[in-house]
Structure formats: C-alpha cells, structure tokens
Design goal:
By secondary structure, the chain is an alpha+beta fold. The chain is about 50% helix and about 25% strand. α1 packs antiparallel against α2.
Length: about 100
C-alpha cells in the first residue's frame, strides 16, 4: 500500500519512473519522455516547442531534437508538425504512447 504524496498516489509516481527506466535509449531521451508524459493530457497529447523543452530540462536544443527523433523512431512518441493557416510554424504536438 502506498501513501499519498503532494496529492498524488505514490504508486502512480513510482510507475512513471519504472516506465522510463524500461525505455532503451539515452538518459536525455528518458528525461524528455518523462516530461512529455507528465505534461500530456488524457489522450497523451502535448504541444510544446523544442526550445521550451530545452530550457525546462537544461539541455541543448540539438540534444532535445536528436532525442525526440530517437523516441519517435523507437515508437515511444509520435511527432506531429503544426502550422498556422498561412503556413507559419507552430510548436509540435507530441503524442506519448
């Protein structure tokens, strides 16, 4: 039996780490995956820029970009590019699987 911690069930929090621990990738990719998973809505979707991910985690933008690609290639996330009506770029949508 787990206790409640900061309004969350400890078992849920521990399982998040277990899932990330099982991912066969770099430590940086695991950090990114855990953050995306935490920010995602009930459908597993989160819209956030690579620049913002970089700032939050203290990782270089190139490190974030390469590790997002690794996560997608391995099937842990799906990356959907988004655009404005006039073709401008928006932050990507990430679907956590």
């Amino acid at each position: 039996m787990f206790i409640e911690w900061r309004g969350e069930d400890m078992e849920v929090r521990i399982n998040e780490f277990k899932v990330a621990g099982k991912i066969k990738t770099t430590v940086s990719a695991k950090l990114i995956y855990m953050l995306l998973n935490k920010l995602a809505d009930k459908e597993g979707s989160v819209q956030i820029s690579q620049k913002k991910l970089s700032k939050i985690l203290g990782l270089h933008k190139t490190t974030v970009r390469k590790n997002l690609w690794r996560l997608e290639k391995s099937g842990y996330i799906y990356i959907r590019s988004r655009y404005t009506d006039d073709g401008g770029r928006l932050a990507n949508e990430y679907i956590v699987r």
